[in-house]
């Protein structure tokens, strides 16, 4: 079965005529994005420039600033994501807000030919770069759809990753509920998002900078609490600068 065929089998309502003309399955058509805009950071992801430099320069540079010098490298992030997700040969993983597919391709290597890595994003320029960078033989498929409400069947995937995006969603709590919905019991989630400093005045500065860029600054216990409310257990949190890496298991 091809990756696109396997992706169609995951959808709650597969389209009668799938649009895969550009190498990804497009469920948004002419819409610029799936939900309401949240600010500058989100708009930049739909430009022609940022996707061109995103994987090699943009994400590593901004990530280093946010994580601090002691934070994990991009290679460390990918390894951490695989561990938090518990990926193994044959797994099915959804990479939400996949951007240019750097993590999705890595997940494809981890799950092997009997598994499937699905990269979901709403940005056409990002997905074009992802498709171009992904070998045709990889167990990877790309989906242009709503990241807050992924259009997958209930309990259809083994793992959900959302790195460096939850804080740009208009409805992050709804997104976490969606992740729980599409996960099978025992499935894993891995998140990289913001973490406001616990002390003033740094805390206030974090809030202001987040508001200016359209990025929500989460409190340090907020994500863990939201996950527990949605039935997740074994919550593991690691802080680095103004970021947090969170992994959890759906009961």
Class per helix and strand makeup? alpha/beta
How many helices in DSSP terms?
A: 9
Biggest β-sheet description: 8 strands, mixed
Order of helices and strands: HEHHHEHEHEEHEHHEE
Overall pLDDT: 90
- Fold-level CATH name: Rossmann fold
CATH class: Alpha Beta
Query: What are the low-pLDDT stretches, counting only 5+ consecutive residues below 50?
Result: none
Give the overall shape: globular
Count of the separate structural domains? 1
InterPro entries: Methyltransf_11 (IPR013216), SAM-dependent_MTases_sf (IPR029063)
Protein name: Ubiquinone/menaquinone biosynthesis C-methylase UbiE
Pfam family, one: Methyltransf_11
Domain Methyltransferase type: 94-190
Molecular structure report:
One of its GO terms (molecular function) is S-adenosylmethionine-dependent methyltransferase activity. Keywords: Methyltransferase, Transferase, Ubiquinone. InterPro entries: Methyltransf_11, SAM-dependent_MTases_sf. The chain is an alpha/beta fold. The chain has a single domain (3-250), classed as 3-Layer(aba) Sandwich (Rossmann fold), CATH 3.40.50.150. The protein contains nine helices and eight strands. It has an eight-stranded mixed beta sheet, with helices on both faces. The mean pLDDT is 90.
Brief sketch in words of this structure:
The chain has 251 residues and is of the alpha/beta class. It has helices at 3-10, 40-44, 49-67, 74-85, 102-111, 124-133, 172-182, 202-213, 222-229; strands spanning 25-26, 92-96, 116-121, 140-144, 157-163, 183-194, 232-240, 243-250.
């Amino acid at each position: 079965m091809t990756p696109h065929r396997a992706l169609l089998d995951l959808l709650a309502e597969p389209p009668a005529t799938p649009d895969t003309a550009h190498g990804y399955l497009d469920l948004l058509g002419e819409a610029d994005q799936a939900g309401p805009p949240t600010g500058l950071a989100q708009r930049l992801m739909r430009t022609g420039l940022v996707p061109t430099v995103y994987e090699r320069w943009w994400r590593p540079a901004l990530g280093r600033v946010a994580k601090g010098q002691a934070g994990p490298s991009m290679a460390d992030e990918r390894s951490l994501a695989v561990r938090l997700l518990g990926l193994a040969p044959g797994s099915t993983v959804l990479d939400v807000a996949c951007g240019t597919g750097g993590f999705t391709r890595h997940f494809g290597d981890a799950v092997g030919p009997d598994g499937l890595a699905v990269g979901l994003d709403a940005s056409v320029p990002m997905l074009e770069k992802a498709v171009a960078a992904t070998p045709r033989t990889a167990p990877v498929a790309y989906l242009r759809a709503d990241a807050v409400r992924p259009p997958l069947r209930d309990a259809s995937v083994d793992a959900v990753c959302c790195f460096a995006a939850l804080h740009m969603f208009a409805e992050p709590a709804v997104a976490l509920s969606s992740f729980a919905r599409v996960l099978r019991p025992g499935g894993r989630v891995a998140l990289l998002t913001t973490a406001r400093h616990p002390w003033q005045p740094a805390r206030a500065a974090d809030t202001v900078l987040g508001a200016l860029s359209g990025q929500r600054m989460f409190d340090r216990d907020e994500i863990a609490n939201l996950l527990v409310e949605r039935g997740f257990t074994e919550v593991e949190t690691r802080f680095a600068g103004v970021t947090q890496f969170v992994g959890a298991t759906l009961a």
